[in-house]
Amino acid sequence: MQHVILGAGPAGVIAAETIRKHAPGDTIVLIGDEPEAPYSRMAIPYLLIGNVGESGTHLRHAADHYTRLRIDLRRGRAVRLDTKARQVVLDDGGSVGYDRLLIATGSSPATPPIPGIAGAGVHSCWTLADARAIQSLAGPGARVVQMGAGFIGCIIMEALASRGVKLSVVEMGDRMVPRMMGPAAGGMIKRWCEAKGVAVHTGARVDAIERDASPVMKVKLSTGAVLEADLVISATGVKPNIGFLEHSEVKCLLGVLTDEHLETSVKGVYAAGDCAEAFDKVSGKTIVSAIQPNAAEQARVAALNMVGRTTALKGVTQINVLDTLGLISASFGQWDGVPGGQSVELVDTKANRALSLQFGGDRLVGCNAVGWTEHVGVMRGLVEGGVSLGEWKDKLLHDPTLLMEAYLARAQAQHVHAHLK
User: Is residue 378 part of a domain?
Assistant: First the structure.
């Protein structure tokens, strides 16, 4: 049997390795669209900080890793999928046939249509090629304007700040990380960054990037402000790489729609990682959750099903833990609440601590936390476990800091009850 995997990121590599473990005689073709050895995009900020070299971003470090596992690693990009002929057409005009196909094509930066954004000095922070360009421009004292203060943007910001640049961040939302944090938490992160010397422009967008004879760019904001920049970073979100599926029979919504086995609407075709839309048991909806732990687990489950070992995905993890210039924040589940739900928020501005809990019935369905690092594991356990809180819900509404006590009282009791059945 021939397995073809599109995408040589974490999902593609883990799927290939899982298939090889359980199907030693099958053929595996792993296709990536970059000239590099398979690497982790999440390691790029550590490369910019200087904690690792380029080889440190590689997913596997042994030079013969893929040949030893008889994984045929090829370079190419899918441009069309012919599900009737069971073939993937590549950008070089060639095609590859498959018995089982995994779509793990990941995502790409969503570049806004801003005049001047395609010119010199503007980069995403997405590929190793981007990292090399940023390293050459982001020296000490360089004026850097970063568009976007979401999750990825804050990670990039940390790397840029470590390089000693003069940094300005522009965010369209009314606070930092607006798709992960509520107003109190997002506002607290903004104030923290400003205290660290970062100029933060929220409620603003970049309208144009202008150049004259000087290499210095003028970044014009919707607020009327004009920022001078030696480097502009675009970190305005990502979108799944699913364009090549447009005329195929594979159903897509925001991403490639999958069932609990990560199989798509076409039998024998699977999807995993940032391009996949999988079922989230907390919200009861299908979502694209582009974080590496999800990519890894989806790849494992998809690969097992591809070799005939029926396995169901337990759910999508909605979790983000972020270090923003030393301030730790976390977001779990439906952090912005559910219709008819109750909530409680505790804010200590002086201590840079905030805690917000969202309830649906007597269960914790989501939460935000800034500075509450000791509760991260407990929050995840309560949200993902769907733990019935009983009388502890009212106790938490009165004092949200009792999360550990609630977890020990209810989650462990639920675990014991399940074993006694």
Answer: yes
pLDDT at 8: 97
Torsion of CA 377, 162, 48, 12, to 10 degrees: 10
Q: Is 111 exposed, middle or buried (0-12, 13-18, 19+ CB in 10 A)?
A: middle
Q: Which tokens go with 72?
A: 């045929």
Is the separation of the CB atoms in 160 and 138 below 8 Å? yes
Last residue of a domain, one of 217, 236, 255: 236
Classify the C-alpha dihedral 120-122-128-131 as positive or negative.
Answer: positive
CATH code of residue 400: 3.30.390.30
CA distance 375 to 356: 12
- In the chain, count H helices and then E strands: 11, 26
**pLDDT greater than 80 at residue 317:** no
Q: Which domain holds residue 7?
A: 2-109+239-306
CATH number of the domain bearing residue 88: 3.50.50.60
Residues with Cβ within 8 Å of residue 372, at least 6 apart in sequence: 330, 353, 354, 355
Q: What is the pLDDT of residue 416?
A: 47
Q: 57 and 139, same structural domain?
A: no
- Residue-wise pLDDT for 207-234, tens only, equals 999 998 778 999 999 999 999 999 999 9
Alpha carbon 206 to chain centroid, angstroms: 23
Q: How many domains does the chain have?
A: 3
In this prediction, residues 97-102 reach a mean pLDDT of 98
Pairing status of strand 206-210 against strand 217-221: antiparallel
Based on the domain organization, do 24 and 36 belong to the same domain?
yes
Whether residue 184 is found in the same domain as residue 281 = no
